[in-house]
Amino acid sequence: MSRRRIHLAAHFPGVNNTTVWTDPAAGSQIDFSSFEHFARNAERGFFDYIFLAEGLRLREHRGRLHDLDVAGRPNTLAILTALAAVTEHIGLVGTLNTTFNEPYELARQLGTLDLLSGGRAGWNAVTSSDAFHGANFRRGGYLDHADRYARASEFADLSKALWSSWRPDAIVANAEAGEFLREDAIARVRQESRLFDVDAVFDVPRSPQGRPVIVQAGDSADGRDFATAHADVIFSLHNEFEDAQQFYRDVKGRLAAHGRSEDSLKILPAVTFVLGDTAEDAREKSREIALAQVRPQTAITYLEQIWNRDFSDYDADGPLPDVEPDTGTETAHGFAGRHAAIRARIDQLRALAAEEKLSIRELVIRLTAQHTFVGTPEHVASEIDRYVQERATDGFTVVGHLTPHGLDEFTDRVIPLLQERGSYRRSYEDGATLHDLLDLPPVADPIGAR
Phi and psi of 199, rounded to 5°? Predict the structure, then answer.
């Protein structure tokens, strides 16, 4: 029996406390040299794609910028376009929002990247429903929660229609006349609904892979339905083995209703790792990294954002606050109806802290900085392979704790072991598109060819 191929994506952090900024080896999250090093290293490790996370607004806490998070990031599409020029094979995937963009404009930008990179572009389609991000845009306000995926689904349909509106043979080269368009080479795309009114003739030719790969990260029932209808890859948080297997079965089981095969959607959960020469060495490193990821101020801030109270006088190494949350201002931020959910969440945190005898900081580490794979390179490679061969995942989105060198050690010490197992590529094929790298079925015939 042939072994299932492991698919890996390389995650450049965007909005989280994963990155350790106090490490002397930490670099810039802004300088292009950081993105270039990260991309070249991932390509050296034969990853399927690099993945740029993005926030649409700097994090704020109690009226001030939250400087323990990523503060400042150049535009995603500009970064990916620049990286296309310094790489040859690896896919280029960016997070771009369906709530605060428009289908034609975003499809044109992604289609251009896809065309000029030789079919290496991908789009992590995310939604938003809150007024905090909405305040940066002319519409302001926020969508009803139910409308997030209604808009996202129509957005994806429109984008795919635009990308597929050119016939593959639309442009004809002639020695005497030069390049010209065939008759009826481009199909007009029309969409009139409650959310969109579009009448367009797309002006970006079809790319070698047909259209950008679509990645999706939602985990709700609506999110899973959106993924099985539109996405090629799911970026999930289900990285514990049994939980991952259950998620895999649920999502893959939904594909048949959309006329899709199991291999048409790849599931690549986010994972972190810590390597050591021995298991004990790795566990000690993991503990040190977790403490650097969750400093006392980070732990207190985490609770303040849930309780909506000032806990600056609390000791991060002490017990959880024995006070009720302030939910009175939630409606101003677009979270009406979440009062009961907030209290339920706090009850869960208190129960977990009591059961495991955790301080505030230990609790936040338990929730946000538990590293997925901890051990020797041999152990980590074995676990990655086990997840894929036993259909818990199709691979992983690997997240390092340093920028931009977070995946260097993984590339040097884990990738060769995966290759020895025969379940990971040893080279890229010339001319392979991102669809090819992910072993996805060919894109359906474009509208103009029907």
Answer: -135, 100
